[in-house]
Structures are given as structure tokens and as C-alpha cells.
Known about the structure:
By secondary structure, the chain is mostly helical. The protein has helices spanning about 5-10, 15-35, 45-60, 70-90, 95-115, 120-130, 135-150, 165-170, 170-185, 190-200, 205-215, 220-235; strands at about 150-155, 160.
Amino acid sequence: MIPDADLIRRSHEGEKAARDELVKKNMGLVYMVAGRFKNRGHEMEELVQVGAIGLLKAIDHFDISLNLALSTYAVPMIAGEIRRFLRDDGMVRVSRSLKENAYKINKAREALQESLQREPGIKEISKATGLQPEEIVQALEASREVESIYKPVYEKDGEELLYVDKICSENREEETINRIVVGQLVEQLPDLEQKVITMRYFENRTQTKTAQELGMSQVQVSRLEKKILARMRREMGR
């Protein structure tokens, strides 16, 4: 039985009290996820408010038939909502003067490239814009940072993967979130499947070693592992 299944059903039927109760029960989850994004130029409470929107979306769209805990479904939605907020609001804030300088520099560089038929140097751009070399470097660095971090690197079926998402996937906060989601998914597995995934991905054992300890062949472990992972991806809607 899924925890809070009755509250979820009542919330989906339009009962505000049930929805509010689910939010209250899961706000600790919002604070935990929001804490992974602190020191990004926004107050913690602001991140929590945005994360709460992700929690509400998770509650409203949660499919009880998935047989998952609400928290398993909510964590990536809360994190995604906060990441979108930071992306759209600009995690790296650039002053108006830097933006204006960057625009002036890019226009001058384009004109110089056309006239010189090569990439202009800093001194040439400085002469054309009237800006000091250090001002040019500062403006270019600021604009390049924003551009590179938020540049789309993959897009399919309306879903966009940004470079910042790739970076975050390597960070501790993302690893923590992933462990929570995967850990809860693993708890739903039958004993044998749970042992296979635990040995392979939490204890870093080879398929051969796993097979030996479970009294199976390496081929059997390989096939079972693929089957389990495919089902877990489907359950997460991937």
C-alpha cells in the first residue's frame, strides 16, 4: 500500500484539506532539496517557495498506479522546479553595464572581423569601443559564463538538457537526490532483484562476482539486471 494513498486520492478529487496535509507532510523534503541549491544568490526561503511549487505539481500529477512513494516522484520534480527558477532568473547575475559593454564589444568585433578578415585582438577592440582592455576581458568573461552554462546541449520531444544540468549531475546535490530516488525504487523490488541491484550498483561488484554469490550464471545476472533497470526507468517515466 502506497503511503498516504487515501490523501492523494482525496486531493485528486479536489479536497483542499487533503492537498494541504500532503504539502505539510512533505515540506521537509522540499527543505532538503532546496538546501542543495543554497549559496546560489537566493535566500533559502525563496528556494523553498519555488520547491513547494514542484511539490504541488508532484501531488497533482502523481499516479498511484506506479506503486511508488510520493517522495520518490516528488524529489526530481522539486529539484527541477528550482533548477528552472535559477536558470530563468539567472544564477550568475550580470550587471547592466557589463551587458552593455558585451553588446558593444560584440558589435565592434563583428565589424573588425569583416574588415580585417581575422579575429581582432583586445587592443583593436579597445580602440574601436573606447573601453579599457580590462573592461573588455571582464565583459567577455561575464557574458561567456552565462552563455556557456545555459546553452542547450540536447533537445528532444520538447525536453531540453542544458549544460548546467550536465554539471549538476556530477555534483553532490544531484548524487544525493539520485540516491534517494533510486534507493526508494530499489525498496520496491523483490528480494532477488534487490540483491542484484544492491551488489552491482551500491557495492560495485562485477556481474561474475554477483552471480557467484547468488548461485546464478553471469548471463542470468546480466539479463535480470537489464530487465530490472528497464522496468525502473519505465516506472520513473523515462
